[in-house]
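agent> fetching stored inputs for the S-adenosylmethionine docking request
agent> found them:
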Amino acid sequence: MTIKLMPVNTTYEPFSLEPEYVAANQGFVDHVELSQVRHFLDLACGTGTVSELLLEKSPAAHLNGVDYDPVQVELSAERFRKLGYEVRVGFDVTEDYSTGKPVLAFGEGSCADLPFEPATFDCITIANAIHIIEDKKKLLADISQLLKPGGVFGFNSTFYSGSIPEGADRLYMDWLIFATEHITNKNKLLEAEGKPTIRRVRGTTRRAFTNRWYSPQEWTEFLAEVGLKVTSINERLVELSERSFTYVGAYGGLAEVLLSGYPVDEASEALQAAAGPAMRASNATVAPRNYLEIWATKS
Ligand SMILES: C[S@@+](CC[C@H](N)C(=O)[O-])C[C@H]1O[C@@H](n2cnc3c(N)ncnc32)[C@H](O)[C@@H]1O
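agent> prediction call returned; pasting tokens
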């Protein structure tokens, strides 16, 4: 099957709505009892996929979402307004209800600098994003401080030691090779037309991705150092369809690290275009990936 390429939408939204993605995140939140939670904090909340799954577990709870990308914050706010919530923009930790539903708040901000009081939240999550955060140990220490005693913290990530299933290395390698070829071919056309070519600025790889990917054991140790005791560790195999794999390629946040140094729109277009060909080169009907899911409790 050939996927028709859309004009590149570099937000996380198309991928975040894919059934395999939603199911994987549902599996992640199903690992823990959340019905007693009154205040959720969903860090790097993106378009609110996981925020929505959390609220389904405790419909009377309030939720604060934080993301440093104003586009994702707006997409989250819009999503919950459509679901009938009053949504405030910012970092208000509120007990208010409006039209029978808890008021939610989504703020544009960095996980490196969280503007909340200690012991505020019953549950903090950072889904599909902890690998991007530069100072992971500081983040975990801050999370521990923001949790109430007995509160829970969970994350899932598909960039850890073990995330590429056996035999799938070739597929992910070809993805990058074909994406680079896409840019090379585009440059030939641009050159022939006498137009400026797409250039890669070297040395711009973000530190988060030059870090080693940690193992479940290492994460357990990091959590213990800040008083968070692991209660469950799970590894989930997720098989992305060609469409999902194509959509994740289009996501600018991933493209800017996988093809760092290229203009993000070009990198997104190239990874989107290369997803299907990479799968066909491996005779793959799905793009397999392992997700690590960890939950811990504050003692
Ligand atoms: C792959 S998306 C995951 C979104 C959402 N948590 C989910 O699971 O669907 C990663 C998100 O992390 C956000 N992000 C990355 N680094 C961040 C930081 N330092 N502070 C806040 N948000 C960040 C990005 O803007 C993006 O929305």
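agent> quick read of the result: Strands lie at 39-43, 62-67, 87-89, 97-98, 101-102, 104-108, 121-127, 147-157, 228-240, 287-298.
agent> awaiting further instructions
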